[in-house]
Structure formats: C-alpha cells, structure tokens
Design brief:
Bound molecules: pyridoxal-5'-phosphate
Strand content: 5-15%
Helix content: 25-40%
Oligomer: single chain
Structural class: alpha/beta
Number of helices: 12
Strand order of the largest sheet: 1-9-8-5-4-2-3
Length: about 375
C-alpha cells in the first residue's frame, strides 16, 4: 500500500550525489561566473550534436538570442503554434517581432502546415516549430516549406533534448535549434538553455549578445578574465550561463542515457495500460526516435477537467495542463475561430506524471485512479 503522504509529482529534477559534488567543486573555487565549466559543457554538447553550441541562463534567452542573431526583429512576423509555453511567444516579442499564432495538427500536436500556409504574409521572417512533448511531427514538411519561402526556422526544442528525426538528433540537423535546461527538462542545469546551429555567423553574434553585446568577450571569460576595453556593436543582454549551472549540466549529460531510457520505458507502460481504455486516446508516438518530456493523454468528451484533476490530487497524483493556448492571453489574443483543431481538443488534454524517478508501480497506481475517476459520468456533462 502507498503511504498517505507521498505525492506523485508531475515532474521534478533528478539529482544524484554526482551533481552535488560537482557544484561543491565550483563553490570551493570561488569563481561562480561564466568560466571553464561553461566552456567544457559547451564542448561536450558540441560533441553530442556535432555542431557548435552557445549556452545561456535560460531556454527563453536562447530563443530570444537565436531570433536576434538571425536578424528577426521589428516589423517581422514569426509563425508559432498555439500549443506552447508562453516562453516561445515572449521570446519572439522580446526580439521586437510579432508572434503569429497558428493552429496545430490534432494528432502530432505540432504546428499545422495548413495553418502555416494560411498565416504567411510578406512580413513573415521565420517559423518557430515547437517539438511538443519531445516529438518532432512534420518537421521535414516545415523545413521544405521554409526553404521554398526563404524563411528561417528557429526550433523550440525545449521538450526534445535527445529526440531524433530519422535517427538524427534534433539539433544536429536543421537551421537553429534551442533547448532548455530548466529544472524539469530532459536534462537540467538548474536554469539554463542553449542554441545549436551550423551557422557560424549566428554562433559568433549569439556569443556577443549573451555578454551585453561586448565583442569577443567569450574566450577571455573561459580563461578566467574579461575584456576591460572592447567595443559594442549591437543590443546585448546579460544572458550567459554560470559555472554553477554548467557543472550540474555536465553530470546530467553523462546521465542522459539513463534518463532517456527511463522516460521511454515509463511512457510505453502508460501506453500499454491505456490502450484498452475506450475514452483515453494516447498519442501515437515513436519512442525509438522520441525522448518524451511530458506524457499527455486526450480524454474524449471530457467536460470537467478541473474536477478530474482534483479527484487525482486527493489521491496524491499531480497533473498538468500543457498548455493554455497562446491566443487566449490578452497580450497575444487572436480569435478562437482561427484555431478549430486547438479548440476541439485542448480542454480534453491532461498531462500525467513523468520523470525518471517514477516507478512502474507509480504508473499502475496513476492509471488505476484515472480509470476509477473516469467512471464518474458527471465529468462528461
Ligand atoms: C521550458 C520551455 C521553454 C523555455 O525554457 P526556459 O529554460 O524555462 O526559459 C520554451 N519553450 C517550451 C515549449 C518550454 O517547455
């Protein structure tokens, strides 16, 4: 029997003593800024992606700088899906551009190519696909379309660290790919993020922008110095990563193989249990390619999601909502008529606990409690 007090968390950081030892080493050095740990972490990530990497203090910062480095700014429009974290939208508006929210495909939950075609204008400068839950959906079609229209593609791959398309890692293909290392992502640095690209011009500009625009300061920082006298050519931000954060990330990267296997294993288990349920739709995912970041189900005709969520919470099961559609925020409001697919499904989506410290018995317990809760017909009225 499960103890009454243990909450099954929706998501969490998974830290071993290795991360703690690593952080302590940095603290003992009494140099906490951007230095050798960030340099090493970037090198290790570069080996992982086989491309250059620039680290930041958040995934949002990585997206913002990716756009700015790709010269997306004032008067430009960026196409972005409805079902994403507010960070994608705010990064676009931080760059001075306008996020044009598009509808999603109701099975992949990714930006819909049809909607992209409907929303493109002369001002469209880039597409920001979001690899929702870690799956990459129709990414090849988005790239083919972007190529035809000469658009840049800035991938929000915050959910997709380690995911692959046709056996190639996301980040090792494509234009500019941004990852997040916040506390609950597939690997964490506490807070952090990175951009990956083969575009050497973007790498160079992004390195300056993250250090307040100070030109060529990165290499000085790595050797424990800084540029006291230098020039500034562009708007910059204080977005660099610190050695404390990088020291956590370096260990997490070493443990990623385990995290990845565990996440896939747990999702397959959920899929298997729910496969027979008449009301629960599990999205058709290929865990040979995708490293799942969140586990989302669709409950057909569900009307009272908040009741269901409180029923589960009484049983110590946390759940989440990914996401409130972007066009519902006052700042980014668009008519819901433009989003038939999102409107059709978003109220029926529910995110269940997923993190590497979950066990099979946790999964069984969660599924059992969901099955019991769904017997209440009031949830569908
Ligand atoms: C986490 C996340 C981000 C932003 O990353 P932060 O590191 O939290 O700034 C962007 N987009 C999506 C879809 C995310 O889940």
């Amino acid at each position: 029997m499960r103890g009454k007090k243990k909450i099954i968390r929706l998501s969490k950081s998974c830290l071993s003593t290795l991360e703690k030892v690593s952080v302590k080493k940095v603290l003992d050095k009494e140099f906490l800024g951007m230095g050798p740990e960030v340099q090493k972490f970037e090198k290790e990530l570069s080996r992982f992606f086989k491309r250059d990497v620039v680290c930041f203090n958040s995934g949002t910062a990585a997206l913002h700088v990716a756009l700015q480095s790709a010269e997306v700014g004032l008067k430009d429009e960026v196409l972005v899906p409805s079902l994403t974290y507010i960070a994608s939208l705010q990064a676009i508006s931080a760059a001075g551009a306008k996020p044009v929210i598009c509808d999603i495909d109701d099975e992949s939950l990714q930006i819909s190519l049809d909607s992209v075609k409907k929303n493109i204008t002369k001002k469209t400068k880039a597409i920001m696909p979001v690899h929702f839950s870690g799956s990459v959906g129709n990414i090849h079609q988005i790239y083919a379309f972007a190529k035809k229209k000469r658009l840049r593609v800035i991938e929000d791959a915050a959910h997709a660290f380690g995911s692959k398309y046709k056996n190639k890692k996301i980040g090792s293909i494509g234009d500019v790919t941004c990852f997040s290392f916040d506390g609950i992502k597939n690997i964490t640095t506490g807070e952090g993020g990175c951009l990956v690209t083969k575009d050497t011009k973007i790498i160079k500009i992004a390195k300056d922008i993250r250090l307040l625009g100070v030109s060529n300061d990165t290499n000085n920082r790595y050797s424990g110095h800084r540029s006291w006298v230098s020039d500034v050519y562009r708007q910059g931000w204080r977005y660099h990563m610190s050695d404390i954060n990088a020291s956590i990330g370096r260990i997490q990267l070493k443990r990623f193989n385990y995290f990845s296997k565990k996440r896939k294993f747990l999702c397959k288990h959920y899929d298997k249990i729910f496969s027979k349920h008449p009301l629960i739709h599990t999205f058709n995912r290929d865990y040979n390619q995708e490293v799942p970041h969140i586990y989302v189900i669709r409950i057909k005709n569900l009307k009272k999601r908040s009741h269901l969520r409180s029923d589960l919470l009484i049983n110590n099961i946390q759940t989440g909502i990914h996401y409130q559609p972007g066009y519902k925020y006052t700042k980014f409001k668009r008519s819901k008529k433009l989003f038939p697919n999102t409107e059709k499904i978003y109220k029926e989506l529910l995110t269940l606990p997923l993190h590497p410290d979950l066990s099979v018995s946790d999964i069984k317990f969660i599924c059992k409690k969901i099955n019991e809760a769904l017997e209440n017909l009031q949830l569908f009225k």
